[in-house]
Amino acid sequence: MKTCYIIGAAPQVDPRPTPGAEDIVIAADGGLAAARALGLLPHLAVGDFDSLGERPADIPTQCHPVEKDETDTALALRRAMEAGCRRILLFGCAGGRPDHTYANYLALAEAAEEGCDAWMFGDGYAVTCLAPGSLRFSEKLLGTVSVFALTEASGVCETGLYYTLSDAALSCEDPLGVSNQFCGCAAEISLRKGKLLVFAELGDRSPEAFIAETEREIWTA
Questions:
Q1: Which of 42, 56, 170, 211 is the most exposed, fewest CB within 10 Å of its CB?
Q2: Partner residues linked to 26 by β-bridges
Q3: Do 61 and 163 belong to one domain?
Q4: Which helix (H) or strand (E) holds 37?
Q5: In this structure, are 189 and 95 located in the same domain?
Q6: Which of 67, 95, 123 is the last residue of a domain?
Q7: Do 53 and 115 fall into the same domain?
Q8: Does residue 20 sit in the same domain as residue 53?
Q9: Quick check: 197 and 104 in contact, CB under 8 A?
Q10: Phi, psi angles (nearest 5°) of residue 35
């Protein structure tokens, strides 16, 4: 699967991204400075470059006006999808300004609508948006996992976790899905309609090791 790494401008990029030779790396504005600090040279920089303070001259850029309707991270995510990437991993996109972090969660929802396997890593968690379909997790995963309805969600099922759900309905105001837990067996989260934000604890796993223990299935009407 063609994979894109997006590097954002959060104050700290943790965990560290480790793209392979065949992967694409896109910096979102000030994420270029973060990428350089990590020893990475992105294939493309996207944004208005107000955070970076300059338009970079050493790599290809996609420059946008400061007065725009989308965040630099959302623009980078869309560029990754346009390039045909179906797995997109975001780093340095959580922490710092909470409004930008939430905007990045919404960008994950757009990726889910397009059928992409998109994950955001930061603050010890992997976060994704699940549209109609399922996420399957290996029995090797440990720690907490929480789900929140980003829209009205129905047909929500959780199996193999400490608490189970069967054909449940979740609303945006309902935190019922918080603080579930992996318990040493294969687990699955699915829904028939709507969108869920899923937060899974990374523990001592690298993002790449975590991804290797998950599988997404997309359901179409």
A1: 56
A2: 6, 44
A3: no
A4: helix 31-37
A5: no
A6: 123
A7: yes
A8: yes
A9: no
A10: -65, -45
| 137 and 91 together in one domain | no
3-state secondary structure of 146: strand
Cα separation of 135 and 126, whole Å? 13
How many domains does the chain divide into? 2
Distance from C-alpha of 156 to C-alpha of 170, rounded to nearest angstrom: 8
177 and 197 in a common domain? yes
Asked, for residue 128, whether it belongs to a domain, the answer is: no
The answer to whether 72 touches 47, Cβ cutoff 8 Å, is yes
Show pLDDT as tens, one digit a residue, over the chain (221 residues). 789 999 988 777 788 889 988 999 999 888 888 888 999 989 999 887 777 667 777 888 887 766 776 788 999 999 999 999 999 999 998 877 788 899 999 999 999 999 999 999 998 999 999 999 999 999 999 999 999 999 999 999 999 999 999 999 999 998 889 999 999 999 999 999 999 999 999 988 999 999 999 999 998 75
Q: Output the domain CATH number for residue 76.
A: 3.40.50.10240
Could you read off the pLDDT of 134-189 as tens digits, one per residue?
999 999 999 999 999 999 999 999 999 999 999 999 999 988 899 999 999 999 99
**Residue 150 in tokens:** 């980003």
3-class secondary structure per residue, 169-215: EECCCCCCCCCEEECCCCEEEEECECCEEEEEECCCCCHHHHHHCEE
